[in-house]
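Researcher: For the record, we're logging two predictions in this thread. I'll number them. Prediction 1 follows.
Model: Prediction 1, sequence and structure:
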Amino acid sequence: MMRALWLCLGCLMLALGVIGAFLPVMPTTIFLILAVGCFSRSSPRLEKWLLDSPTYGPSLRAWREQGAVSRKGKTYASLGMAAGYVLFYWSANPSPLLAIGVGIFFLASAAYVLSRPGPANTPPRK
């Protein structure tokens, strides 16, 4: 029962990651990281498929093995968060308190991403 739940959750995270690859305001990698975690509990075949992906595999493996985020990933994540905040502020016209609260959340999230180490050079996976 739990394995099926993890599989369904992994498929949902994978679908959100695919959507995020096409929508500029939605993240991709975090959903793929969550999908790999779900698949590790339910489907080793799907977990391996994601980790061996030529596009996303290296960043997923770097996160899993080292907790690392590439410089490019940090840049895109920070720019995405800044753009998300601007879109939120422009479209929602929030109260000052809400704007500050959401701003603090985005700043804390960006600080976490920026504090992650860069990936060490590791040989390609076979």
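Researcher: Logged. Prediction 2.
Model: Prediction 2, sequence and structure:
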Amino acid sequence: MNSVFEVQKTIREILLKILDNHSLEQLNKIPEGFSNNLIWNIAHCIAAQQSLVYKLSELPSKVSEDFIARYSKGTKPEGYVSQSEVDEIRIMLSETLHQVQKDYADKIFVDYREYTTSMGFTLRNVEDAISFNNYHEGTHTGIIMSIRKFV
């Protein structure tokens, strides 16, 4: 699993650079032809990781339920995200990465509720979820790279 966590670390570093290199206005802008923005995609990666890894393992998530509800699949940006919210998201990007690594090493993931993703891939255990999460975050990183050309 070390290489899987290294991939996620690399993705999260890319997302942190996006936060560092774009203004609040750019992070919030929804370009024509898109249904969301840079900050929604970044926050969505956190919410999805928490749902796929913790919630399906029947464990409490490391971010608020309100955050997950706001950025989960099927949602869209609801108003302007403030600088303080961006700062919280920045912290969550790092903290949720380190926490899942620690929790995995501590073997807290015992149960897992099988889940079939919208891509048709069935997650049967936490290892599947952590691996699939990298694919998911990679997909959203690609979307982010497209959006940033228009902001």
